[in-house]
Amino acid sequence: MKTVIFEVRSPMQAMADIVRDIETGIPDTSAHMVFASMDLLAQVMSEARWTLLKALCGTGGMRVDELATRLGRDVASVDADITGLLNAGVLDRDVRQSIIFPYDEISLDLATTGRSTV
Q1: How far is the C-alpha of 68 from the C-alpha of 91, rounded, in Å?
Q2: Is residue 15's pLDDT more than 90?
Q3: Radius of gyration for the chain, computed over Cα atoms and rounded to the nearest angstrom
């Protein structure tokens, strides 16, 4: 099962984990989508976008119109959400222009310290 973890961490913390993985030769078994602040995560990930990602989990890819039908939403609004997620690096497109989210499971790590990170 392929898992992606959405997390709020400073870029320096995320880079330290990458360096640790390289130095130890033991890669992390999950992919990570790292956001520098809760505000940035909230800006990118609306409730509708979380629902969209859940619908894409484990599918291997889907056309925009097919996804809109599955979600019971109009194609234009789904396309707008997809564009935002593509621009944020959360989604990809394949050669047939299907929307790709190559994960079966989504996890959240929202540990906060009370300090603001930018």
Answers
A1: 16
A2: no
A3: 16
Q: pTM (2 decimals)? A: 0.82
Residue 111 has pLDDT above 90, yes or no: no
Taking domain 3-109, whether its CATH number is 2.80.10.50 is answered by no
Taking the C-alpha atoms of 101, 58, 44 and 115 in order, what is their torsion angle to the nearest 10 degrees?
Answer: -110
Pick from 114, 117, 103: nearest CA to 29: 103
| Tokens encoding 43 | 């800006």
Write out the H or E segment, with its range, that includes residue 100.
strand 99-100
Q: Give 61-102 pLDDT, tens digit per residue.
A: 999 999 999 999 999 999 999 999 999 999 999 988 899 999
Q: Which residue in 67, 27, 35 sits closest to 51, CA to CA? A: 67
Packed helices 75-87 and 64-71: angle between N→C axes, nearest 10 degrees: 120
Domain ranges of the chain: 3-109
